[in-house]
């Protein structure tokens, strides 16, 4: 999870859950202060409390300097060499600067620190300033991911979201050969709305769908069309749009499906074939579709996957809608078969529904 996802999860958490996090953070901070208190008590007995304070202030000053010495040169180098520069500085210049500065100043304080005392303070400072924050960040990320998954199990609108302006059609249930039950749903946009982007929640966090395959939904202008099988998780989407007045908004959509008695309400999903065209029962995301087309007379049909942005098949939508017409591409002839792929539980082959002319 990146910082923005963690921040969004934090804002979506209930107040009592956030209170538990604050309590945990306070406990972690006290645990980090305990070694410093023990260290101070030791040096007070040695009559070196003033020297201890000065050396600890040096630790605070040297921490960002050592970080910059290691990080900035690595950032200035591009390609695989950057990683080599980073590790080289991390194992040589960084430790030398950190431990050397503590040893050098420790011997010049009054009263002076012994080499061993300076070394112990440098090691403890390294743990407190670098080790503990990294460990805390990793623990927070793992726990925040758990919180995000819990939120996805009981989805609800975020406080900063608007009302969804689309006309939400009821989910419709179909039966497909080789796949089983498949849900579809359409969200029809009002006039003047411009759909900017779609985020999809995957295993807790929200992820932008731009530039990646999204087989569970597709867009036609401001309209949104969903398709998912009963074996796939119900999609959780967040729409970003601009209204007719130029204002940007966002809202989440969680399809509300109802259990059916072995699909007794399901209709048979059909695809009508026309010369170089298709008429499906409902809009289909292009990233689910495989087409078998005839290249030349007497040859076996050629199967190819459709992509969301196919330069040979430019469309104003990433859906296969009723009335779809494929342009003439090379020696391609009519479409003779359509395959629709769906995800399956881990370890099982992905099912595919085949429709033939």
Task: Considering the chains and any ligands shown, give keywords for the structure.
357 residues; alpha+beta; 3 domains; 6 helices; 24% strand; elongated
Verbal overview:
With 357 residues, this protein is α+β, with helices and mostly antiparallel strands. The chain contains six helices and 19 strands. Strands 1, 2, 3, 6, 7 and 10 form a six-stranded mixed sheet that branches. The chain has a four-stranded antiparallel sheet with strand order 5-4-8-9, with no helix packed on it. A hairpin with a 3-residue loop joins strand 2 and strand 3 (180-188). The chain is elongated, with a radius of gyration of 30 Å. The model has no long low-confidence stretch (mean pLDDT 86). The chain crosses the membrane at residues 20-43, 55-74, 80-99, 119-140.
What is the fold's blueprint, element by element?
Blueprint: H1 3-12, H2 15-45, H3 49-76, H4 81-91, H5 93-108, H6 115-153, E1 167-168, E2 172-176, E3 180-188, E4 194-201, E5 206-208, E6 217-220, E7 223-229, E8 237-242, E9 248-253, E10 267-268, E11 271-274, E12 277-280, E13 284-285, E14 289-293, E15 302-305, E16 319-320, E17 324-325, E18 335-341, E19 352-356
Parallel strand pairs: 2-10
Antiparallel strand pairs: 1-3, 2-3, 3-7, 4-5, 4-8, 6-7, 8-9, 11-12, 12-17, 13-16, 14-15, 14-18, 18-19
Helix pairs in contact: 1-6, 3-4, 3-5, 3-6, 5-6
Keywords: Membrane, Transmembrane, Transmembrane helix
Transmembrane segments: 20-43, 55-74, 80-99, 119-140
């Amino acid at each position: 999870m990146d910082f923005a996802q963690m921040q969004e999860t934090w804002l979506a958490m209930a107040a009592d859950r956030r209170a538990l996090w604050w309590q945990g953070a306070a406990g972690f901070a006290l645990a980090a202060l305990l070694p410093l208190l023990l260290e101070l008590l030791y040096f007070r007995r040695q009559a070196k409390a003033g020297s201890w304070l000065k050396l600890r202030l040096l630790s605070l000053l040297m921490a960002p300097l050592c970080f910059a010495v290691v990080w900035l040169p690595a950032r200035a180098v591009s390609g695989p060499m950057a990683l080599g520069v980073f590790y080289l500085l991390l194992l040589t210049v960084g430790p030398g600067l950190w431990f050397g500065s503590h040893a050098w100043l420790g011997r010049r304080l009054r009263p002076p620190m012994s080499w061993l005392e300076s070394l112990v303070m440098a090691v403890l400072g390294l743990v407190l300033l670098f080790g503990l924050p990294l460990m805390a960040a990793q623990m927070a990320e793992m726990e925040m991911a758990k919180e995000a998954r819990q939120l996805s199990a009981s989805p609800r609108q975020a406080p900063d979201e608007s009302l969804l302006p689309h006309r939400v059609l009821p989910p419709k249930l179909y039966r497909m050969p080789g796949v089983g039950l498949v849900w579809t749903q359409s969200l029809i946009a009002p006039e003047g709305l411009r759909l900017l982007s779609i985020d999809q929640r995957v295993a807790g966090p929200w992820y932008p769908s731009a530039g990646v395959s999204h087989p569970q939904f597709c867009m036609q202008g401001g309209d949104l069309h969903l398709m998912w099988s009963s074996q796939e998780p119900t999609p959780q989407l967040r729409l970003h749009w601009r209204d007719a007045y130029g204002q940007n908004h966002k809202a989440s959509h969680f399809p509300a499906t109802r259990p059916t008695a072995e699909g007794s309400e399901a209709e048979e999903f059909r695809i009508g074939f026309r010369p170089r065209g298709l008429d499906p029962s409902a809009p289909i995301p292009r990233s689910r579709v495989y087409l078998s087309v005839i290249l030349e007379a007497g040859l076996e049909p050629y199967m190819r996957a459709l992509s969301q942005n196919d330069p040979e098949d430019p469309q104003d939508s990433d859906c296969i809608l009723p009335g779809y017409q494929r342009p003439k591409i090379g020696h391609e002839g009519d479409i003779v078969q359509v395959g629709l792929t769906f995800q399956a539980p881990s370890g099982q082959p992905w099912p595919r529904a085949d429709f033939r002319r």
